[in-house]
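W.,

You were right to be curious about this one. When I first looked at the sequence I had no strong expectations either way, so I just let the prediction run and decided to look at it fresh. Below is the sequence, 293 residues in total, followed by the output.
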Amino acid sequence: MRWVVPPEAPATAGALAALRERFPALADPAATPLCERFARGEFVDADGRAWRAEDAVGPGHELWFHRELRDEHVPEIDLEILHHDDHLLVLDKPHDMATMPRGAHVLASALVRLRRSTGIRTLVPLHRLDRRTAGVLAFGIRPEERSAYQQLFARGAAQKTYEARVRPEPGARIPTTAGEQAVLRDRLGKRHGQLTAQVLEGEPNAVTSLEVIDVAADGTTALRLRPRTGRTHQLRLQLSARDAPILGEDLYPRPVEPPSMPLQLLARSLAFTDPVTGQERRFLSTRTLGGAR
């Protein structure tokens, strides 16, 4: 769970004392002592850095934790590193791994796993992938370079290519012949506190280039997708709104495969001109869709 320290909180309160006051149940005798949980690094900030029990917390600070992290399931998964130098670490993220600590996914998140496995406490994700999406995910290493990289992604200067598998419904409004292309334009919006986004009336703010790679005998269609914008769940919602939901979809608008099926969406490649080194960077996922790896 996430707790944002309120404006009225004293700025000098220690993290342990502040949590005990706000969440008395954490000090229940049947629970793991808070001092032990702090020592194990179970309370982290929005960037995945562990809080110490004595660290001063004040208004606006975020503390992420599970009410009892010893119950969190952390699957045994090897993390495949595509690239690692003094500036960047690039992960080939598996399906169903959160990028950042969120809700019940704290210790199992990519950020916390990587910080623990590499010992690099300054790692931060430079962009986001949905928990259910696999593929190329870049992390920055040096705090002084973080802004340059994040601005690169914010202004859309990084080229992202995704692959997806869909089974278009009758009347679906996407191309269905190998080699065909289209551009998807929509206005998408998401209300604060809601998990899903919606297609709205108005000027488009979400644009995606689409190309049909292949069509199987059963109608399953492989797509190449190049988003030009970065709205929440952009690819998932744009395809579902055209009656071609991604296989394994569980949000827009309904499941089209058993929940055990990984979402058939893969961030295949990421390319950009490095704002720090000037190098041309291109990273390619080795993963496949269809349940393999």
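Here's what jumped out at me. The radius of gyration is 21 Å. And, maybe more interesting for your project: The chain has five helices and 15 strands.

Coffee later to discuss?

I.
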